[in-house]
Amino acid sequence: MEYILYEEDGAVGVITINREKALNALNSQVLDELSAQLDAVDLSKIRCLVLTGAGEKAFVAGADIGEMCLLTKAEAEAFGKKGNDVFRKLETFPIPVIAAVNGFALGGGCEISMSCDIRLASDTAVFGQPEVGLGITPGFGGTQRLARLVSPGMAKQLIYTARNIKADEAYRIGLVNAVISPEEGGSSKEAVLEAAKKMAKGIAAQAPIAVRASKKAINDGLQTDMDSAIVIEEKLFGSCFETKDQGAAMSNFLEKDKEKKLKVVPFVNE
Ligand code: DAK
Questions:
Q1: Which domain holds residue 240?
Q2: In this model, does residue 267 exceed pLDDT 70?
Q3: Is residue 268 part of a domain?
Q4: Which of 204, 222, 237 lies at the terminal end of a domain, its last residue?
């Protein structure tokens, strides 16, 4: 692959969008390669993903404006669908995905971060939906995910004004889970990547089927009314009682032997 890097650290996979010269802007090739990389993740081994951008300056500076500039209506719709399909693949990916947002996350960059389960921002991160300044609407789900993630009023303000916001404001409005500052003199990008990997390892240490079921319950439940959502949770909760992890973890808790009680459960993927 030309624009996607992938490495594994134990049960954590790290995907890097690697088009630094164009601030990791999303062209068709990046989107195709990202989709192929997601398909190639070994889910029997990997329990959490981290998504980041190459370099210090940008996570993703948006969809590729050069590629979009001359699109016809039909081509624009096809480009929008290509992005939306990949973003939806990320959003519904069986295991959690953490965005380590190192720098600019504009337009499609903000949108791809919102397709991830959790966003950690470097202290240098900048978020925004500048599309109306380019004569278009957000096209990779921004009108929908931003309104759901923050609030309709705040999403409208950000989208209508095309104003960029810094990491601390993104945190204040609930767009990111945390802002990570480096040690004095350290790299902001390294700090956010390390924090994301650390969180990913913590997630990977939990019962994997229970984590996957929790993601599915939250995602599916948010698409429906509360009565139906609770049934979705009940079914997924019930399914955990067919796993070895549930039996082992609860028995360990009930063990009288303190040593054994505190022992980390070697969760299996079944
Ligand atoms: N696309 C293509 N190239 C980009 C880019 C982008 N979004 N952002 C940056 N680059 C390139 C620059 O052209 C430059 O390339 P060279 O000139 O060196 O060849 C290189 O990256 C470095 O950028 P700058 O020289 O501009 O760097 P600065 O530090 O001066 O400025 C910046 C950094 C992030 C403030 C600036 O690059 C910038 O404003 N970039 C554009 C940000 C932006 O507007 N992003 C939103 C794009 S719109 C849809 C599907 C999707 C979308 C919409 C509809 N459908 C089809 C339905 C999504 C739209 C968007 O994402």
A1: 208-262
A2: no
A3: no
A4: 204
Is 269 a domain residue? no
Q: Looking at residue 254, what is its pLDDT?
A: 87
168 and 144, same structural domain? yes
For residue 240, the CA-to-ligand 1 centroid distance in Å is: 45
Ligand 1: residues whose CB is within 6 Å? 22-23, 25, 61-66, 76, 79-80, 83, 104, 106-108, 130-131, 134, 136, 139-140
Tally of CB atoms within 10 A around 59: 32
Atom 4, ligand 1: residue with shortest CA distance: 22
- pLDDT for 248 beyond 90: no
Residues 6+ apart with CB under 8 A from 15: 4, 5, 6, 34, 37, 38, 49, 50, 51, 52
- Same-domain status, 47 and 91: yes
Closest CA to 122 of 106, 109, 104: 104
Which of 56, 75, 91, 131 is the catalytic position?
131
Query: 101 and 223 share a domain?
Result: no
**Cα 107 to averaged position of ligand 1 atoms, centre (Å):** 9
Mean pLDDT of 153-166: 98
Give yes or no: residues 156 and 232 share one domain.
Answer: no
* Local confidence band at 268 (pLDDT 50, 70, 90 cut-offs): low
Q: Please, are residues 68 and 32 in contact by the beta-carbon 8 Å criterion? A: no
